[in-house]
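2024-03-11 09:14:02 INFO worker-7 job=invfold-0412 stage=load source=structure_tokens
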């Protein structure tokens, strides 16, 4: 393991559980692989805007159309390229992903809208879509107020973990694991249990990693 990319997406600052846990995961990975580099992408400190009409024309040009060319769209395109290059350079991505309204924070969705790019992370063939970002490991740090895993709510309401797994699979990443703290809003005791469970997930990650890069 050489390059770790830590992505934080919670706007809950110091009270954020996912931020606390992404830091724990990265510390654990660094302990196992001291040579590993860590890039930190904080999507709250440095937000990514919603896709604009102009950026779409640059990222997904209509055949025959001339893409817009001005300072604003150049800056947007440069940011998209920076996010994509950073992602492509990572061997392991530690992705903080709170559940917000049964899905992910819009900040994380905006990042996905930059990284899932035809010709860069996926392509279409006559046999269907082909993921181009294979070979990475993604550790999703999932924090959520209620409990979904293994319950009747999971298939109806979990558009967070299920979505992330689907979109990562789409771009070729099949090594997706979850560090999960759920039920954190239910009671202080449930919150303690959730954090202890997430710590067990983190301890389990060690088994999957070699001692050195
Ligand atoms: C805007 C918002 C929406 C939320 N929506 C849900 C939800 O749909 N389901 C749920 O179980 N918890 C929900 N929660 C609770 C969060 O998932 C929980 O606070 C979690 O710890 C957030 O991660 P963080 O602590 O890293 O910010 C929501 C919290 C906020 C602030």
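2024-03-11 09:14:09 INFO worker-7 stage=emit residues=213
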């Amino acid at each position: 393991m050489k390059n770790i990319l830590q992505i934080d997406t919670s706007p809950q600052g110091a009270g954020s559980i996912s931020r606390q846990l992404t830091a724990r995961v990265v510390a654990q990975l660094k302990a196992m692989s001291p040579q590993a580099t860590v890039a930190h992408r904080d999507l709250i400190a440095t937000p990514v805007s919603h896709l604009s009409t102009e950026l779409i024309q640059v990222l997904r040009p209509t055949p025959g159309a001339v893409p817009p060319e001005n300072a604003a769209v150049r800056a947007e395109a440069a940011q998209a390229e920076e996010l994509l290059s950073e992602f492509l350079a990572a061997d392991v991505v530690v992705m903080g992903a709170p559940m917000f309204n049964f899905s992910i924070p819009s900040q994380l969705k905006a990042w996905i809208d930059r990284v899932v790019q035809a010709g860069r992370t996926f392509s279409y063939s006559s046999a269907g879509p082909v993921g181009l970002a294979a070979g990475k490991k993604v550790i999703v740090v999932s924090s959520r107020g209620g409990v979904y895993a293994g319950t009747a709510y999971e298939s109806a309401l979990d558009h967070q973990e299920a979505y992330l797994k689907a979109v990562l699979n789409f771009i070729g990443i099949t090594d997706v694991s979850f560090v999960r703290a759920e039920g954190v809003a239910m009671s202080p005791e449930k919150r303690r249990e959730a954090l202890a469970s997430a710590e067990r997930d983190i301890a389990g990650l060690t088994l999957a990693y070699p001692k050195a890069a």
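2024-03-11 09:14:09 INFO worker-7 stage=report msg="The beta strands are 3-8, 37-42, 92-98, 122-125, 128-131, 137-144, 175-182."
2024-03-11 09:14:10 INFO worker-7 job finished
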